[in-house]
What does this fold into?
Amino acid sequence: MVGLIIKYTIIEAYKKHFFTLLLSAFITCIVLGYYAKSISIIEGSETFNYFYNAAMRLTAVFLLAWYCIITQAQQIEKARLQMQMALPISRTWFCVGSLSAYYVIALFIALLSSLPFVFAIDVDGLAWFFSFYLELCIVVSMAYVLSLLFKQATIAISIFTLIYIFSRNAAEFTRHADAVLGTESQLFETVSLWIIKLTALLVPKLENYANSLVLESGLEIEQYLTLITETSLYVVLLFLIAKIELHKKVL
It folds into this structure.
């Protein structure tokens, strides 16, 4: 039954032309990357690597997350989610099947996106693919949970965008908060900065998945293990939240 859920979700993505849109975005990022390289004063492929890394990551992240949120919102609106949960399968395995389908789609995205780095000499393509796939797993888990928490897709998308931007810049926000807290500040500013610091401790450090070291020198074994551990913790936590929300919808 889990396999059927995965198959249904992937076929639905195909029917909605998600893969066509993804392929178009992939080609566009490559073309723009080579254009940026052609007008850059820096010799070599460094300009293309950095431009493509940033453009493709952001494009793929928001395409996958927004597709997940919009699809789940449509299922809830058309009562398809209730029909699917009426199948003879536990809510746990239903949640596993739904998330696994998006993880498979994320795997395809990561494989497609890493193609320009397969034969690159100055880029560790394996490290880039690995870190990007783990980032997509966290992103789509977050999007899935938000789609269950909020009925309106617009609200879920807005909250996801804010969380993602904060997660990609958590270290910078924390450094700024530390600098300001070291000076005299108003009570409101102090409380706000402490909220920022506490939030930074809770959100995933997505900047570690996409920093320049991944692109330039690859990852050490310890770094692979760290990313796997962090990703596993967040994925399991988000899975538990999604499972609870599905139980609420059944009740």
Notes: The chain has one domain: 2-250.
